[in-house]
Amino acid sequence: MDRAPGAAAIIAGAMLGAAPLIELVGTTRGDTDSAADGLRFLDESAYRYGLAGFVLVVGGVALIVAALGFAQALGRRGPLALGVLTVSTLAVVAGASVLFAGVIRHTSHGTIDYIEGMDHGWAESAYLAVHLIGTQALLPMAHHLLAAWLVGIALVLLRAGRRRIALVGVLPALLLALFAVDAVVPFADDGSASGIVWVAYVLTMLVAQPLALVALGLAVLRTGTGPLVGAPTGPALSGPGGTTPPTG
């Protein structure tokens, strides 16, 4: 069970990375914000939309397992215990958001197709509702909360002297920094510089973070969670009078 969080992190990273590829590669997706393009995509590749949703469901569940596993292993070790539990809670919310977005995507295309048979305008509205709730709200929120978790785990690893593995927090930290900058100077504004930064922002969210999850999972799968942070310390290891109990 010591390696279960690592396996879950690998699955979560793989699923989060695969979902956009399933939907976008080899298709004429068009503008995802366009209801007309969205309905045309669903008419041509509804199975891709549904499959991407299922993959997100698996990824969301795996992320929840990974977050709870790390919280169980690291949550009571050292002065950062409260911080670990806090960012782990954020990761659980992120996993739930990915799960909900996946369920919406997996189940909605048939309903949208049925609505389109009654009224095309209603179908466009239904597509936009699904798009705004899932793609534009739940998934970005999940990625930013996931970034906070990865940065928190990286800080724990850095404090434990695991500097190489702690590098998994660098790009998620960049994502959070770009998010803060975007709040002041929106990247979507016209201008080549803003466009380049916006592309970097999206790539960090959709590519770098899944890779960081996989890298963290591989590290844990090799060693388990214990060696990543060193031996646990604290009152739980002390015998009567504050001395360390003898070992057999």
UniProtKB/TrEMBL annotation:
Keywords: Membrane, Transmembrane, Transmembrane helix. The keyword Metal-binding does not apply. The chain crosses the membrane at residues 7-26, 46-68, 80-104, 137-158, 165-185, 197-221. This is DUF4386 family protein. It comes from Nocardioides albidus.
